[in-house]
Design a protein that fits this description.
Layout (H helix, E strand, L loop, with lengths): L12 H32 L6 H15 L14 E3 H8 L3 H13 L3 E4 L9 E4 L1 H12 L10 H4 L6
Antiparallel strand pairs: 1-3, 2-3
Helix pairs in contact: 3-4
């Protein structure tokens, strides 16, 4: 709810227009992001993965392949990540990461371990089965130069 411009003193029209434009751009970005998530969900569903599961596996794969320095104590190789890093990187809650990792561990797609330096923490890395599944998903996708169709991007969300 917006307050009356008169109640804020002299609220300028240019400031109001800038605020409106900023919110419009933000809403458009969210809409595009959700559309991209729907496209990704549709492309990975045939492999039994959700969009978040795929993104988590892909993040672990990229961490390993790029040999990033790990933010997870006790993970010298850079191939594993902890819950905090994954939640931040994927823009989901720590609770969602926990549930997602548990499912992926049960299906053998990720492996977890507890670093010697801090036995209360757990770090995860991509298992061989997860790597193979990611390769299969990526190999079966359309060419990279094919953008998702307008229908794919704007399809109504499944209930």
């Amino acid at each position: 709810m917006r307050s009356d411009p008169g109640s804020q003193g002299e609220a300028s029209a240019p400031r109001q227009a800038a605020d409106d434009a900023w919110f419009d751009a933000l809403c458009a970005a969210v809409r595009e992001g959700r559309g991209a998530a729907r496209v990704l969900e549709g492309r990975v569903a045939a492999f039994g993965l959700s969009e978040v599961e795929f993104r988590l596996l892909r993040a672990l794969q990229k961490a390993r392949d790029s040999n990033l320095a790990s933010s997870a104590p006790g993970c010298e190789s850079g191939a594993c990540r902890d819950q905090t890093w994954l939640a931040s990187h994927l823009a989901v809650s720590a609770a969602q990461i926990s549930a997602t990792v548990m499912k992926l561990q049960q299906t053998g797609l990720v492996e977890g371990r507890r670093p010697v330096a801090n036995r209360r923490r757990q770090v995860w890395q991509l298992a061989a089965a997860g790597d193979a599944l990611l390769r299969a998903v990526i190999e079966r996708q359309p060419p990279a130069d094919r953008r998702p169709s307008r229908r794919e991007r704007h399809a109504p969300e499944a209930a």
